Amino acid sequence: MPEQQGSRLQQLDAAHHLHPFTDSQALHRKGARVIDRGEGVYLWDADGNRILDGMAGLWCVNLGYGREELIQAAERQLRQLPYYNLFFQTTHPRATELAATLAGLLPGDMQHVFFTGSGSECNDTVVRMVRHYWAVQGRPERKVIISRHNAYHGSTLAGASLGGMKPMHAQGGLPLPDIVHIDQPYHFGEGQGQDPHAFGLERARQLERKILELGPERVAAFIAEPIQGAGGVIIPPDSYWPEIQRICRQYDILLVVDEVICGFGRTGHWFACEHYGLEPDLMCMAKGITSGYMPLGAVAVGPRVAGGLIDGGEFFHGFTYSGHPVACAVALANIAVMRDEKIVERVHTDTGPYLQQRWASLADHPLVGETRGLGLVAALELVADKSDNRRFPGERGAGVICREHCFGLGLVMRAVGDTMIISPPLVISRAEIDELVDKARRALDLTYQTLNH
Ligand SMILES: *Cc1c(COP(=O)(O)O)cnc(C)c1O
């Protein structure tokens, strides 16, 4: 695409397009970055620059760009049946096949799925489903859902309410009633100087204290991401999840796990639940379920809640595009490729450990206070002083400076405050991992120069 075309698009974009999660004035000063095409783990912008996509789009393009199997599955389905719904005692072949395929992949004894169009819609579904479930059990007072500060569960009213992003709550009067938050298990950010094991237990036991404070008879569910994604790739200490699961069982609280990022191989397992030994009652999936080629979400439902829903009369809930046939066809093709090419095994035994080993080598950089990761997701913390992990003052914008240097070098790396995060396509090769880590180090060097001027 010629350069003129890029700036023409930027002008049209500024004139007509309001963007999600964007400060419009800041965007208009710079002009939007126009991403034009993709192949494998690479993107090309409108000026022809090649960029290694270290974020797999928004944590979703797990098989990389340009996969013929997914494209052809979509095309075949568009010809056969481009749309039909699942309401009112109807199904279509791809939704049924996908539900059965997922049942064979889900952790624990989960055997049912409810389709949606996105991760946010999964979490809206969760709120309605758990409250409906308890009402069907004759316990309508069990309404409160406990989540965590700095969690991300999407951007609809329920998704943003379950999420713990304060700036999101401040816009639009959230959270919704009967959604409360406890602290996150973010050791680097909130537990400096404490033993990680003890810190993990302490954060988990906040759940117990919150349940007792509210009264266990009022609490419906606890929801969390196994590893917080948008919050900054926050990996809890190993003591955290077993204690959370114990508390949920002891007080008969439903456990809801949001696997929208972690699911479909990101951690080197089909689901992070397997890594942490979790047996959730409900589990949210989206993003990697189609490698982002089509919008789709699904809530996996364990036997307890499924039984309640099946016996509970009509559940007045669903979306026009829930389980869209083209999205389901793409999801089936996506899962077939993942199985044929043993993608999850490769992340578990080969590329995941390789990325983690290379990523950990960045820890010696003067700007880096910590590196962490699992499978093909990782983070590093930018600090002003390594000796005490002191942060830069927020207004320096160290994370944004680093992110912009990454773009300049042809790498997408995301900044969450001063935490730099990556989540590359699961098909990334060792050579491409080398390129990613080399570019990250060069970006850190440039960031160091910028910040010390
Ligand atoms: C992205 C995300 C969501 C929201 O999914 P959308 O498809 O953007 O609605 C929910 N939960 C988690 C953990 C996510 O990362």
Describe the secondary structure blueprint for this structure.
Layout: H1 3-16, H2 24-30, E1 35-39, E2 42-45, E3 50-53, H3 56-59, H4 68-80, H5 93-105, E4 112-116, H6 119-136, E5 144-148, H7 157-162, H8 166-170, E6 179-182, H9 187-190, H10 196-214, E7 219-224, H11 240-250, E8 254-258, H12 272-276, E9 282-285, E10 297-301, H13 303-311, H14 325-340, H15 343-360, E11 368-374, E12 377-382, H16 398-409, E13 411-412, E14 414-416, E15 419-422, H17 430-451
Parallel strand pairs: 3-13, 5-6, 5-7, 7-8, 8-9
Antiparallel strand pairs: 1-2, 2-3, 4-10, 9-10, 11-12, 12-15, 14-15
GO molecular function: pyridoxal phosphate binding; transaminase activity
Protein name: Aspartate aminotransferase family protein
Family: Belongs to the class-III pyridoxal-phosphate-dependent aminotransferase family.
Overview of this protein structure:
One of its GO terms (cellular component) is cytosol. Belongs to the class-III pyridoxal-phosphate-dependent aminotransferase family. The chain is an alpha/beta fold. It has 2 domains: 33-66 and 342-451, Alpha-Beta Complex (Aspartate Aminotransferase, domain 1); 69-340, Type I PLP-dependent aspartate aminotransferase-like (Major domain) (Aspartate Aminotransferase, domain 2), CATH 3.40.640. The chain contains 17 helices and 15 strands. It has helices at 3-16, 24-30, 56-59, 68-80, 93-105, 119-136, 157-162, 166-170, 187-190, 196-214, 240-250, 272-276, 303-311, 325-340, 343-360, 398-409, 430-451, and strands at residues 35-39, 42-45, 50-53, 112-116, 144-148, 179-182, 219-224, 254-258, 282-285, 297-301, 368-374, 377-382, 411-412, 414-416, 419-422. Helix 4 packs antiparallel against helix 14 (325-340) and helix 15 (343-360) packs parallel to helix 17 (430-451). It is globular and about 65 Å long. The two termini are 37 Å apart. The structure holds pyridoxal-5'-phosphate. Pyridoxal-5'-phosphate is lined by residues 118-120, 123, 152-154, 159, 225, 229-230, 258, 260-261, 286.
